[in-house]
Fold this sequence. Notes:
- Keywords: Heme, Iron, Membrane, Metal-binding, Monooxygenase, Oxidoreductase, Transmembrane, Transmembrane helix.
- By secondary structure, this protein is an alpha+beta fold.
- It has a domain at 134-398 and 432-515: CATH 1.10.630.10.
- The protein contains 21 helices and 13 strands.
- It has a 6-stranded mixed beta sheet with strand order 1-2-3-9-6-4, with helices on both faces. It has a 3-stranded antiparallel beta sheet with strand order 5-13-12.
- A hairpin with a 2-residue loop joins strand 2 (81-86) and strand 3.
- Helix 16 packs antiparallel against helix 19 (371-384) and helix 16 packs across helix 21.
Amino acid sequence: MPYSVGLQSAATAFLSAGFATQFTLAVIAFLAIVLITSSLQKEGPDAPKFLPGFSLFHIIPFFRQRYDFLNWGFQATGQNVFQFQLLKNTVIVVSGESARETFFTAKGLDLTEGFKILSGAIPMVRGVTSNLQTGRISLIHKRLANVQRNLPLSALIPQLLDDTRRIMEGWGPSGKFDPFDNVYELVFQLTIRSLSSTEISDDPARVARLKKLYDTLDNGTTPATVLLPWLPTPAMIKKLWATKDIYDIVTQAISDRESSGISRNDTLQMLLDFGDEKLVVVGFIMGLLIAGARATGTTASWLMTFLGGHPEWRAKAAAEVDALLARSACTPAASPTEIAPEYLPAHFQPQTSLSARLATIPLEAWEGETPVLDALIRETTRVAQPHTAMRRNLGPELYIDNKIIPTGAYVIYPFSDVHLDPELYPDPWKFDPGRKEATHVPYGYVGWGGGKTLCLGTRLAKVELKLLAAMFVLGFRHSVIDKNGADANPLPVPNWNDILLCRPPKGSFNLRYERTAVPL
């Protein structure tokens, strides 16, 4: 009897306490439960081995030092499949050829659920970018495919080149910059141009505002905002405000278009012409802008860095683009004058400019006649894209390398397992676009995904990268310098613990550049 009276008194005291006290006690109780349950973890005969130590101590390393943490996990367990807890979420990490093949082909492993929980940097608006029905997700994927069809993509090329010219001219005749600032900013503009509206892409202030907001989402993604999204931390509050502002900018652009009654040749118009509901239109733009800009921006930043540090490959790329220009000069049908005027940017340059001449190269040439650029992009994504593929098992339990993957568990595969494997890529950290492809094993390269899950924006991303590289190698001379201004030796090394940009320490290097005699 005294025990029940004591509990009743404690309950009364808890309910009479202020919200702050109740909230704090609730969080403490929740973490205590997690700590206790994690200490009671037991492995069944088919279960992956648990990481040693309390699971709470695994949270920060997973989010802040992921590459080192996962490598430590494989070493600590001595297994190629192991598991750990992120609070109540079971996460299973897999590696090796057999596990990789199963991971990329298993029907029950869902990308959307895995990415949503374990990443957390996408602006989440219920019914717009999260908690989407399967049909709405499929429709967004279909619309992304529409953007990348031959005619829209061909018409987009002159606009992308004009954006590139304008921003590169803003760099001045010579100087230095951090590619993860300047090149990334350029890619963000190209992504805005490709996937949103002219109301946004033609307004530098609005583009800059969007970039700042998306940077807030990236920088504000902490273990707490991902695992405890209901916890009103300062980072979460900043993310919520940033998400609201992004939503307002996108919806305002839609309203401006609808009220103007003017039809434009851009992605927003395509979505409106298809009659898609507003939530699909907003979700398409909000979600794909950051997904496209982040991955392509990382690759572009490193591609320019590698070209600056490997002049022999820079020369090969320039020669290849020169050859494309020479061939296109003999192909009148590829001239911009054959492109409908409404597809051309308002300030399209005369054909003497590099951007205008590059616009004469047809899409099929950019895609089918650029083996050097293809090799450069492939090698860059191999050595400098710190992806960890994320899935959630929404199907029945399955086995990977004889280890059970329960329904509801999260499964991750680090790309470093294959892309930095010295058996497949000797001297794996070396940038060598001439190396042989690892075609003798399943999924020996997964830079754009694999199996049933491929990057749906691959075509657009590769075109953007090639246009940017072409403008840079013909319009500029550049090299890599260290923080003291001397030629960098050694060259910067990708930091796989930076899960967004693979970026070395800020300020550790720059690109020094000067314009060539070729007018942009």
